[in-house]
Predict the 3D structure of the following.
Amino acid sequence: MDFLLTGSSNLDRFLRGGIRTGLITNIFGESGSGKSQFCFSICANLIKKNKDVRAIFIDTSGNFRPERILDMSNNPNSDRVLNNIHYIRPYSIKDQFEAIKKIEEIKPKLVIIDTITSLISTESKNITRHLILMKFIHELAHTAINNNCAIVTTNMVRNIISKSSVYKTIHNTDVEHPKKLKMQREFMGKSVSLSIHIKLKFEIISISNNLYKVSFLQPFINDSTMFRITKTGVL
């Protein structure tokens, strides 16, 4: 097992060394919480430090920004940096599964999937989407182990309506129900958790100050830390 550095010494300490090869690390959080930027930083840092190492970026949502990776890598040889990142843009569940075969062919050190549920949630419903997602992550897990590569996936959150909101709607009153419940849960989180190894939650602390929070959820470790996103990466 190896460790891939994130570009931030603070985050590397928090992650007990960095992103681990042979495992799937899943990151979830609301839009704008730094998930994609974190992935760009890992890619940039890997290629910057290892000129012969390759990465795969599987972009299901159109979030890939090569210019951000170049900013973060701070490398004058931009062609080499981007040539070492194999970009895949799947447009269907079938394409997403086909992308796993590229991992076997290219033998990258790092695979990013941003985001893991978007295509599956669009093309399938109810229990079917969960079965497809679990099958996909199961195949990913085997691929991570067999190729000793780090696989990082991102996912979104869904909002849980608070009991107080429901109470006010039903009773047409401004009085809040005493048992408030305002939560954000990972989309299809239970299905994701069955096969992934490490789960991190990203939260927005201050957009104006580019300040974010990361917490361990799986394995459950009562620990969190702050990080910033700058032009040159995560700090």
Notes: Residues 114 and 154 are 5 Å apart (CA to CA). Residues 3-234 form a domain with the Rossmann fold fold (CATH 3.40.50.300).
